[in-house]
């Protein structure tokens, strides 16, 4: 794993945003895997600025998102559908028909998961997957104990994840308890992965990710099995990592 240590969130966003924009410029038809959460917001902001000032075009880019809550209407500001439109898609020249997010309101959720996998395969797989990390080591919404062989599926959220994500909602009770999430095997099939982390709250998770054992009890440790992972993290997030 390649580790890029940055001093602050702004530098993290610039580093990640420039890496992604550079890949888009060299491969205009790239398939990007995108993440939600607070961490990638600055990266998306950088990509929007770069699109406006340098003209990097997303007109032929396709995107697949990692996950979506079950039971939130698309119009709910906390749905990942709304999040992606607001923080990125509405501000770049992407064809929104080429942006894919699991449908957390599908009448047949199992079929939706299977279709999502089919969609990724039809796109030729994910070229570059952006990831964040949960304090408990979750990637996408794959909570501890998820099989490394998992594919897109309906997953329950842990108490810890619900508490962590409650900050985006008006109350904890409003946080959905289930989601559709790309599986760990799906994520591992991406050709390249960039994982972002900031702040002290992620320090323990980052030390387990980098120095810990590969175990399904800590989902992000699966990334140790991938040959092209870049971690971009600030000093606080890397403060417990052994050199
Ligand atoms: N499903 C998302 C994850 O993909 C994300 O990595 C995590 C961390 O979020 P944050 O960046 O806000 O710490 O939050 C959510 O649970």
From TrEMBL:
Biological pathway: Amino-sugar metabolism; N-acetylneuraminate degradation; D-fructose 6-phosphate from N-acetylneuraminate: step 5/5
Positions annotated as active site in the UniProt record: 67, 136, 138, 143
Segments forming domain Glucosamine/galactosamine-6-phosphate isomerase: 15-229
Any Gene Ontology CC annotation: cytoplasm
Similarity remark: Belongs to the glucosamine/galactosamine-6-phosphate isomerase family. NagB subfamily.
Function: Catalyzes the reversible isomerization-deamination of glucosamine 6-phosphate (GlcN6P) to form fructose 6-phosphate (Fru6P) and ammonium ion.
BP terms from Gene Ontology: carbohydrate metabolic process; glucosamine catabolic process; N-acetylglucosamine catabolic process; N-acetylneuraminate catabolic process
Domain of life: Bacteria
UniProt-listed PROSITE patterns: GLC_GALNAC_ISOMERASE (PS01161)
One term of GO molecular function: glucosamine-6-phosphate deaminase activity
InterPro entries in UniProt: Glc/Gal-6P_isomerase, Glucosamine6P_isomerase, Glucosamine6P_isomerase_CS, NagB/RpiA_transferase-like
HAMAP family xrefs: GlcN6P_deamin (MF_01241)
Pfam families on file: Glucosamine_iso
Gene name as annotated: nagB
Protein's name according to its UniProt entry: Glucosamine-6-phosphate deaminase
Keywords: Carbohydrate metabolism, Hydrolase
Gene3D superfamilies assigned to the protein according to its UniProt record, in alphabetical order: 3.40.50.1360
EC number: 3.5.99.6
Reaction(s) the record says it catalyses: alpha-D-glucosamine 6-phosphate + H2O = beta-D-fructose 6-phosphate + NH4(+)
